[in-house]
Amino acid sequence: MAEETEKRTGNGLLIETRSVHIPKNRNTPINKDWDDLCDAIVNQLKLDTMLDAKGGKVHLRINAETDDANAMQKGENYLKAYMLGFRLKDCTAFLRVNDLYTDTFNVRDVKAILKGDNLSRAIGRVAGRGGEVRRQIEDSTRTRIVLTDCKVHIMGSFANIKFARGAIADLIIGSPPGKVMKKLQMVSDRIRAL
Questions:
Q1: How many whole angstroms separate alpha carbon 155 and alpha carbon 138?
Q2: Which residues in 23-143 belong to E strands, given as ranges?
Q3: CA distance from start to end of the chain
Q4: In terms of domains, do 66 and 26 share one?
Q5: Contacts by 36-39 with C-beta closer than 8 Å and gap 24+?
Q6: Among the three residues 96, 111, 135, which one is the final residue of a domain in this structure?
Q7: Measured between alpha carbons, how far is 186 from 193 in angstroms, rounded to an integer?
Q8: In DSSP terms, which residues pair with 61 in a beta bridge?
Q9: Which residues contact 129 (CB under 8 A, 6 or more apart)?
Q10: Residue 79 domain-assigned (yes or no)
Q11: 11-70 per-position pLDDT tens digit
Q12: pLDDT (tens digit, 9 = 90+) per residue, 150-171?
């Protein structure tokens, strides 16, 4: 008979550790927001956490006080969303809402021939003047959007991400923002009716 080598907490949860990579462009923000990030992980999820600045990782670990079996996954999703560039306030939704996801795609995945000024214009159409188009997409689809270089990161429910991604793809292809916003208004009305 083999011995059980797995360590478990008093609640029967398997003691597990996970690490989340810190991109170089997020070193300064994570140092600034570390106390708030750590507070949410330790007090709400009851996980142990450690910032390994030299290794460029944040380590999470289940401890004896952890009572939620999904705490580790929630903590990892929370940190990954922050590392993608979402605001701390938006990331805390991962701690409260179960059906929340992030999706990332490259602008060139939508239209592969974009280069130079054409690529900049496509990203500009998604952002809009002063971020207005991006905010309208966020409000209509109940999502959050982050534009970094050539990548678009979307946070929301599965269906809402699908609607936002469709609107962004239309803008990248070259559809007029007014037409896309009209289509989004219809989608927004359908989402609110649910």
A1: 9
A2: 47-52, 57-62, 101-106
A3: 54
A4: yes
A5: 36/88, 37/79, 37/82, 37/88
A6: 96
A7: 11
A8: 17, 48
A9: none
A10: yes
A11: 566 678 899 999 998 999 999 999 999 999 999 999 999 999 889 999 999 888 888 888
A12: 899 999 999 899 999 999 999 9
Q: Which range of residues forms the domain containing residue 32?
A: 17-96
Record the tokens describing residue 170, joined without a space.
């239309």
CA distance 117 to 133: 19
Task: Reduce the DSSP state of residue 116 to 3 states and report it.
Answer: helix
Query: pTM of the full predicted structure?
Result: 0.84
Residue 28 lies in a domain: yes
Q: Are residues 189 and 105 in the same domain?
A: yes
User: At 12, which amino acid appears?
Assistant: G
Among all chains, which residue has been given the structure tokens 């214009």? 121
Name the residue with tokens 């209509």.
140
- Do 108 and 127 fall into the same domain? yes
**Phi, psi torsion values for 148, nearest 5 degrees:** -135, 125
